[in-house]
Amino acid sequence: MSLILISNQSNAQAEPMYSQYMFNMMSINPAYAGSRNAPSLTALMRNQWLDFPGAPKTSILTFDMPMQKNKLGIAFKLTDDILGVEHTTTINGAMSSRVSLSEKSTLSVGLEFGMQFYKANLLLVNPFVANDPAFSQNLNGQVPTLGTGVFYNTDKFYVGLSSPNLLKSRLAVDEVNYIRGYAMKELHLFLASGYVFDIGENVKYKPSILIKSVGGSPFQFDLNSTIWLSNILGIGASYRTEDAYVGMLELQVNSSFRIGYAYDKTISHLSQYNQGSHEIMLKMEFGSDKKGIVSPRYF
């Protein structure tokens, strides 16, 4: 592989990105655990920057459910992220504490924790300098993760603030050396919000926004608009600042199963080197409580 994705310098590592975050907010906010009032299993697979050597490939599997009459939520999250010769797997557990502020509104606070396992197959790299000692052996290591968030929702509105990893950990090769290219992560903050408008008997309109902040980088905005028809078909479009335009389709196959697809058209300087990104989401819910699932079609 001639494209070197790992440098000798420490660069801030970014959290995996998803275009369909609004349908799987467990991926960005642990306080979301249990918010749908039913056990929920979601899988999301993202193949980014087609035809670009070493492009990211990310998969995430989440499961969450309410407990203690919806006063608590628990969740498990497995993330697998491949970038060039780097491979990162993260296993997290999460718990949220939920308080009903009124009949239709809930505030929750969540905490997630786990381990991140990292490896870099450096022997596959063709370095610019022959016999570069920086690429003389494969590397691997693990670090703990700790994230937190708050989430408020009614049946038609939500807002959440979260940070998926508060720890600034470095992966050590030994007591002296650290894995090159895997730096202490800068603090990531996510602010997400959305609202559902009734614009017809069988038509809903849901705008949403995600604001991402990473230390040392400018804010990035995801602006999304989705139209829902008869609570079955969702058609959406997004704009990610200085990065991509996104088209989305969501199909509620039945009361328990949903499938989603997103296509990103790159508009950054990388646009001439790739054919866009594909993302598929599968979501299964296993029943509901007597009051039903809160806003089952929208978030």
What does this structure look like?
By secondary structure, this protein is an all-beta fold. The protein has one domain (21-285): monomeric porin ompg (Porin). It has strands at residues 40-47, 57-67, 72-83, 86-100, 106-120, 139-153, 157-163, 188-195, 197-200, 203-214, 220-229, 233-240, 244-252, 257-266, 277-285. Strands 1-2-3-4-5-6-7-8-10-11-12-13-14-15 form a 14-stranded antiparallel beta barrel. The radius of gyration is 20 Å and the shape is globular. The chain starts with 39 loop residues before the first strand and ends in a 14-residue tail after the last strand. Mean pLDDT is 84; it is low at 1-12, 174-184 and 289-296.
Short description:
This protein has 299 residues and is mainly beta.
Keywords:
Porin; 299 residues; mainly beta; 14-stranded antiparallel β-barrel
> How much of the sequence is in beta strands?
over 45%
**How far do the termini sit from each other?**
41 Å
- Order of SSEs: EEEEEEEEEEEEEEE
CATH architecture: Beta Barrel
Secondary structure tally, helices: 0
Oligomer: single chain
Task: Name the CATH superfamily classification.
Answer: monomeric porin ompg
From the alpha carbons, calculate the radius of gyration and give it in angstroms: 20 Å
Major sheet summary line? 14 strands, antiparallel, barrel
What topology, given as strand order, has the largest sheet? Answer: 1-2-3-4-5-6-7-8-10-11-12-13-14-15
Q: What's the total number of strands?
A: 15
CATH class group: Mainly Beta
Computed structural class: mainly beta
Number of domains: 1
